[in-house]
Design a protein that fits this description.
about 260 residues, mainly alpha, Four Helix Bundle (Hemerythrin (Met), subunit A), Helix Hairpins, two-stranded antiparallel ribbon, 2 strands, about 70% helix, flat, transmembrane, potassium channel, Volt_channel_dom_sf, Cyclic nucleotide-gated potassium channel, voltage-gated potassium channel activity
Length: about 260
């Protein structure tokens, strides 16, 4: 690596103050870009002056995102690995539509493609320790969550079958098929209950009561799993922090009557 490349890599090093400042600025730029995108949603109601200002700031944001992407590409030891990594693909996807549309911000295809800019929000996840803790927590209970999703899918299907059996004749326009009933199942199991589909038969009401009670338990299970996984993280950090000292061969010492310490 050349001296310039090493300087860029040192600038982007997250373990150093310069890298943390750079990441903080990148976070602010992502949020600012999202705010500009929200302002653009006003459309024709924006005055020409405000619209020009937003377009100019959008150009500036895109250029800064491009500079960041180039710097990270230069600093990467394995450039191919960075390009096809999650961060590299998100960075490229957020700036490529602008250049594909030849800088035409106002064109409809360009505005549609710039929706990819939203994916940059996911990059904020690697800048926050709390979000990283959530990611580790989800990783530790991945198998339990997969099993829970399978159980939820089965419950949605069975509840849709049940409510279709009770309500299809009384309300054929709403509970037309099992597929139509799956919307009711999701709304009921999650205890949302929009009210657009509700039972009118006695059997349907009793069945709905049982489904609602089951839904309360279904929602509580993942919350408990995630809370338990988050509570285990501090103890896991303490365990990992003790390992290096043992791995480097440090031995415990005990007190000697002569005022010296000697290894066990």
């Amino acid at each position: 690596m050349t001296e310039a490349t090493l300087s860029i890599a040192e600038l982007l090093d997250e373990s150093k103050r310069s890298g943390r400042i750079f990441n903080f600025c990148a976070m602010g730029l992502i949020v600012f870009g999202m705010l500009l995108y929200c302002v653009e949603s006003y459309g024709p109601s924006l005055s020409p002056r405000v619209e020009r200002t937003v377009d100019t700031l959008t150009y500036v944001v895109i250029v800064l995102f491009t500079v960041e992407y180039v710097l990270r590409l230069i600093a990467a030891r394995d450039k191919r690995e960075y390009i096809f990594s999650y961060s590299g693909m998100v960075d490229l996807a957020s700036i490529l539509p602008f250049y594909l549309s030849a800088g035409a911000i106002d064109s409809a295809p360009a505005r549609a493609l710039r929706l990819l800019l939203i994916f940059r929000l996911f990059r904020l996840m690697r800048f926050n320790l709390a979000i990283k803790d959530f990611a580790r927590a989800f990783e530790s209970i991945r198998e339990e969550l997969v099993l829970l999703l399978l159980v939820v899918a089965i419950m949605i299907f069975l509840s849709a079958v049940g409510i279709h059996y009770f309500e299809s004749e009384a309300q054929p326009d709403k509970f037309q098929s099992i597929f139509h009933c799956m919307w009711w199942s999701v709304a009921t199991l999650t205890t949302v209950g929009y009210g657009d589909m509700y039972p009118v038969t006695v059997g349907g009401k009793i069945f709905t009561a049982f489904v609602t009670i089951a839904g309360v338990g279904t929602i509580a299970v993942p919350s408990g799993l995630i809370a338990s996984a988050l509570m285990r993280l501090p103890s896991q950090r303490r365990t990992l922090s003790r390992r290096p000292s043992r791995a480097h061969g440090h031995r415990r010492r005990r007190w000697s009557p002569r005022g010296r310490t000697r290894p066990n």
